[in-house]
Design brief:
The structure holds 2 protein chains of 2 kinds.
Chain A (H helix, E strand, L loop, with lengths): L8 H4 L31 H16 L4 H13 L4 H13 L4 H14 L4 H17 L3 H18 L4 H14 L2 H4 L2 H11 L4 H13 L9 H18 L4 H13 L8 H6 L28 H14 L3 H16 L4 H13 L1
Helix pairs in contact in A: 2-3, 3-4, 4-6, 5-6, 5-7, 6-7, 6-8, 7-8, 10-11, 11-13, 12-13, 15-16, 16-17
Chain B lengths: L17 H13 L12 H15 L2 H4 L2 H13 L1 E4 L2 E4 L31 H13 L9 H11 L17 H14 L7 H10 L17 H13 L21 H13 L17 H13 L8 H10 L17 H13 L14 E2 L4 E2 H12 L2
Antiparallel strand pairs in B: 1-2, 3-4
Protein name (chain B): Terpenoid cyclases/Protein prenyltransferase
Cofactor (chain B): Zn(2+)
GO cellular component, one term (chain B): CAAX-protein geranylgeranyltransferase complex
């Protein structure tokens, strides 16, 4: 089967209306209407290619040359979802090898990382390949490696992460899942504030559907708390890490109070001195840390509120200090928390 | 890094360049350069942002004459199309040939569109709002057809896809289906219960909602989730008070508190909101997060002044508002920034900052929302 090329130099300068092999087609110009809203001043190349595309759709043509035409259109406008739709339909009808299409789209996906259609197309391809390819798992595994390449150009790209998560859940195979935590840890080593990586950690550790008894939740929680504490020690004012910590405690219905010793280390004015006993379960903030840190104060106040009774007063004191000193942007919020606590 | 917004004395807020912002949008309405070709498949949305800016600035009638508005209404209606999947609006005429019977060879009898030119759910929402902004009488509205179209777009997991035969499906489309149902005042086109369950599955450990289940919490889709849950009809078994912007029976008190916390955490030291934890502020998230807080009844907790300070720095010197300072403006960010300012007017600012009341659930002015009620609901 001839492979579709994207850079046939003979064709490059030519418009479709100049190509001999397209002479059988009568192009259909666009009718924009009277007084159109936001008309686009199309380039001659785009105008030409889309005129042929309308004609192809009208003729219901399914052929190899449609692949070239749709490729050209989406190269000029990757958001042209009709061209993507028609391309996919043509690939399927021609029984075109979909793994070849996937590879053809690699550079394209990285170039147009922020375009939804790029990832949607890959989803369709992977869905079809799972039921038709001789070894779908190796394709999925290769795809995970490709996504790592794509993410390396933009480590927080939403579409790319969504696609990775979809792929993992769709194939749901231990072989694919097992590389995820090490990958997340590599990303967090580079940037501990990468919330997409923290989120992916949550997705992998807590979002994966497991059979009962497959894992020991207590062990996993212990490991995750230890990991997160270490990351907080590195960067105490990192809301991604604190949100993760809160998330896993809530998910496992573990009281916030169980982390009191750790949180107190970050809620005081001064870092604990070197002479203090080293407590591996509760890593201390580094020497340059800005203390107290607001997320720790908030956490400590939540512990006090959780305990209730006399401790509510301590929570109120902390909220006041957040509003007046440590987190003045949210002054109104901390005042609101005080009011709420007093009204109970 | 800008100075601490709290230190700004009140006179420091520059004037809001209303006229320049309107001109930016007016220019876009009359034409987009070829570099904006990606808008080809979302022109109605671009139109909505531009018209929305003019509406909020109260300049639609003075800047654009009635003849032009009439032609624009006609143009939007020309995008309404009926067929196998029901009726809705296409993004624009990018598949419309000069031969008006272009599709007769490949469509079923009576169909006005092919499989590659179907109506689009998000565009249908923006078309209805645009027509209301243009004060259309909605006599050409195919209500039954639109309800059928909504049915064609809903999937078995409760979500909706942009197109009846494919396309993306996530909270954005759910929101559009809910907004359209409430604009039509008819919920018979969608299965509300399964859609609500889908929305709830999108809530994430941080307190925000991801674009789809399992996704990272994101400001834009959090707005879609919250607005949908507040637009949804209240189940008759519920003993709740009537629907208000402060209450939805689909959100528990605990979840509500967690969402408010996360949203407020995203107001960055610049004064603007970021869309995700640890990202930089962006003008559009000032609306998505700000409107979300408003819907949850927590708008009193936002630092208005800091928000306006940030947005004032996103104003481009030749008009329009960009996503961040020093970036190029576009109609989307211009609209979202103005909508955010309408919800969060800075105290003691001069009259250039005065904007009309917003309907945060539909994302339009109160006056346009009232026009919808008068011209669609009571027909």
């Amino acid at each position: 089967m001839p492979r579709v090329t994207s850079n046939n130099s003979d064709d490059e300068a030519q418009l479709y209306c100049e190509k001999s092999e397209w002479q059988d087609i009568t192009p259909i110009p666009q009718y924009d209407g009277i007084n159109p809203i936001a008309p686009i001043f199309y380039t001659p190349e785009y105008k030409d290619a889309t005129e042929y595309f309308r004609a192809i759709v009208k003729a219901d043509e399914v052929s190899e040359r449609v692949l070239q035409l749709t490729y050209d259109i989406i190269s000029m406008n990757p958001a042209h979802y009709s061209a993507w739709q028609y391309r996919y339909r043509t690939l399927v009808a021609l029984k075109h090898p979909l793994d070849v299409e996937l590879e053809l789209m690699d550079a394209f996906a990285i170039k147009f990382l922020k375009t939804y259609q790029v990832w949607h197309h890959r989803r369709l391809l992977l869905t079809a390949l799972r039921s038709s390819a001789p070894s779908p798992l190796s394709i999925a595994s290769k795809e995970l490696a490709f996504i790592i390449r794509a993410l390396s150009t933009d480590t927080k790209n939403y579409h790319t992460w969504s696609y990775r998560q979809w792929l993992l859940a769709f194939f749901d195979d231990e072989e694919l899942w097992e590389g995820e935590l090490p990958y997340v840890e590599r990303l967090l080593e580079t940037d501990v504030r990468n919330n997409s990586a923290w989120h992916h950690r949550y997705f992998v550790v807590w979002g994966r559907v497991r059979a009962e008894g497959e894992i020991d939740v207590g062990d996993v929680l212990k490991r995750e708390i230890a990991y997160t504490k270490d990351q907080i020690a590195l960067a105490p004012n990192n809301p991604s890490a604190w949100n993760y910590l809160r998330g896993i405690l809530e998910h496992t219905k573990t009281p916030f109070n169980s982390l009191r010793t750790f949180v107190e280390l970050y809620s005081t004015q001064t870092a604990p001195g070197e002479e203090d006993i080293v407590d591996l379960d509760n890593p201390k903030p580094g020497p340059g840390a800005q203390l107290p840190c607001a997320p720790a104060l908030e956490f400590l106040a939540d512990i006090h509120e959780e305990m209730g009774g006399e401790q509510t007063k301590k929570a109120i004191e902390i909220w006041k200090s957040l509003g007046n000193e440590y987190d003045t942007m949210r002054k109104k919020y901390w005042e609101f928390r005080v009011k709420e606590a007093l009204s109970v | 890094m800008s100075s601490d917004p709290l230190d700004n004395d009140k006179s420091s807020l520059p004037r809001f360049a209303r006229s320049a912002h309107a001109s930016h949008c007016n220019r876009c309405l009359s034409g987009l350069p070829s570099t904006q070709v990606e808008a080809d498949t979302s022109r109605l949305a671009v139109g909505f942002y531009c018209l929305g800016v003019m509406d909020m600035l109260g300049l639609l009638e003075s800047k654009i004459n009635e003849t032009e508005r009439e032609r624009w209404r006609d143009w939007v209606w020309n995008q309404q199309s009926s067929g196998t999947y029901g009726t809705g609006f296409r993004p624009g005429p990018y598949m419309t040939g000069q031969d008006s019977l272009c599709w007769s060879d490949v469509t079923q009898p009576g169909d006005e569109y092919s499989e590659y030119d179907t109506p689009h759910l998000i565009m249908t929402y923006t078309a209805l709002l645009s027509l209301a902004i243009l004060r259309d009488d909605f006599k050409r509205l195919e209500k039954k057809g639109i309800l059928k179209f909504l049915r064609s777009c809903q999937r078995s997991d409760g979500s909706f896809s942009s197109l009846p035969n494919g396309g993306d499906s996530d909270l954005r489309q759910v929101y559009c289906a809910f907004a359209i149902s409430s604009i039509l005042d008819d919920w018979s086109g969608i299965d509300v219960d399964s859609a609500v369950k889908y929305i709830q599955r999108c809530e994430n450990y941080e307190g925000g909602y991801g674009q789809s289940p399992g996704g990272e919490a994101l400001g834009g889709t959090t707005y879609c989730a919250l607005a949908s849950l507040h637009l949804a009809p209240v189940p008759s078994s519920s003993s709740s008070p009537s629907r208000t912007p402060l209450f939805s029976p689909h959100i528990s008190t605990k979840h509500r508190s967690r969402t408010i916390r996360w949203l407020l955490q995203n107001q960055t030291p610049s004064g603007g909101f970021c869309g995700r934890t640890n990202k930089v502020a962006d003008a559009c998230y000032c609306f998505w997060s700000g409107a979300s807080l408003h819907i949850l009844g927590a708008s009193g907790l936002v630092d208005n002044r800091a928000l306006a300070t940030f947005l004032s720095t996103c104003q481009f010197k030749f008009g329009g508002i960009a996503k961040a300072p020093e970036e190029r403006p576009d109609p989307y960010h211009t609209y979202m920034a103005i909508a955010a300012l309408a919800i969060y007017p800075p105290e003691d600012a001069d009259e250039s900052w005065t904007l009309p009341e917003m309907n945060a659930l539909w994302n339009t002015t109160d006056e346009t929302a009232q026009w919808i009620r008068d011209h669609i609901h009571n027909k």
